Amino acid sequence: xxxxxxxxxxxxxxxxxxxxxxxxxxxxxxxxxxxxxxxxxxxxxxxxxxxxxxxxxxxxxxxxxxxxxxxxxxxxxxxxxxxxxxxxxxxxxxxxxxxxxxxxxxxxxxxxxxxxxxxxxxxxxxxxxxxxxxxxxxxxxxxxxxxxxxxxxxxxxxxxxxxxxxxxxxxxxxxxxxxxxxxxxxxxxxxxxxxxxxxxxxxxxxxxxxxxxxxxxxxxxxxxxxxxxxxxxxxxxxxxxxxxxxxxxxxxxxxxxxxxxxxxxxxxxxxxxxxxxxxxxxxxxxxxxxxxxxxxxxxxxxxxxxxxxxxxxxxxxxxxxxxxxxxxxxxxxxxxxxxxxxxxxxxxxxxxxxxxxxxxxxxxxxxx
Length: 368
Prior knowledge:
Low-confidence stretches: 114-123
Keywords: Hydrolase, Metal-binding, Metalloprotease, Protease, Zinc
GO molecular function: metal ion binding; metalloendopeptidase activity
Largest sheet: 4 strands, mixed
GO biological process, one term: proteolysis involved in protein catabolic process
Helix content: 55-70%
Strand content: under 5%
C-alpha cells in the first residue's frame, strides 16, 4: 500500500504541475458517484477493503484513452476514455469496475512487485546522493516514470479475464447495465482503429473472444442487475467521507463472485468427486478453522476446491450454505453427509486418513 501511495502521489504530482488534474467539475462529480457505488459493492466482497484509501482522479488528457487502479484503491481515469469515447455511465462503470477488479484480485500488487518495486530504492538513493534540491527533483522524476511504467504495463490474459468477470458483476450489483461491457469494447475497437492503437487497448488487449466472454456472462449478470438498487447515492461516500465513520463490515459473511460452480453450490447441486484423501487432509485444518470462524463463503470455496467425496466435506458445504442463507441447499448437503456417514470409505469416523475434527456428522442440524 505504501508503494502505491508513493507512486500515485508522484504520478499525480507530475500531472498537477502540468495543470492536468480536474477538480470539482461535472465530470469529477459524475465519476465520484459511479465509483462510490462500485466501491460499496467491492467492500461487500472483501470487507477489509473498507479501510483502503479509495480515491479516483480525473486526468485532463482527451487524447489518452486509459484508466487504472493501483493496490489500495488508488484510481485514475483520463478524459479521453470518459469523454473522448462519449461513454455512458453504464460504460464508465464497466471500466472502473474492471480496474477495481484488478485491485481486488491483487493483480496490481503482483505487477508492481515485479516491475516497479525497485523504484523505492531509486527514491531512497536519490535522497542520499542528491547534493541539491534540483538534483533530487531530477531523481524524483525517475520515480514518476516508474509509476507510468506500472500504468502502461499490460496485464496477463488470465488477469484481464478475472478483472472482466469481477468488473461486470460489481457494475451489475451497483445498478449498471451488464450489456454496457460489450458496447464499451465495441467503442474501444472503433477508437483503436482510428487512432492506430490506444493506451487502454495496449494495456488491456482485446479480441472477439473477450467480447464473447462478456456476452456469455450477460444472463446471470442481468439477474443481479434486475435486483440492484439503481440510481441515487450510496449510504456512504467512500471517496470523500470521514474515514473514521466508515461502515463496519462483517468479515465472516462476505459475498462471493458469480461462477457456475458457485451457482450450483447455492442451489444445492454441487457434487463432490473422488479427489485425493491425502490432499483433503492437508486442507482439513484450514477448513476446520474457517468453520470455527463462520467464514461461510471461503469454507464453501475451499471445500469445493478440495473436491473429495466424504461426509465431512458435505457437512461443511451444508453448514456454509445454511450460514449464507441457502436453506434448501443446506438440507441437501447435510442429508448427503448423513448418508455418507454410514459408508466406510466415505465416513470420516471410519476413514483411515480423514478425522472428523470433533464433529458429529450424523447428527448435523441446519443451524449454521
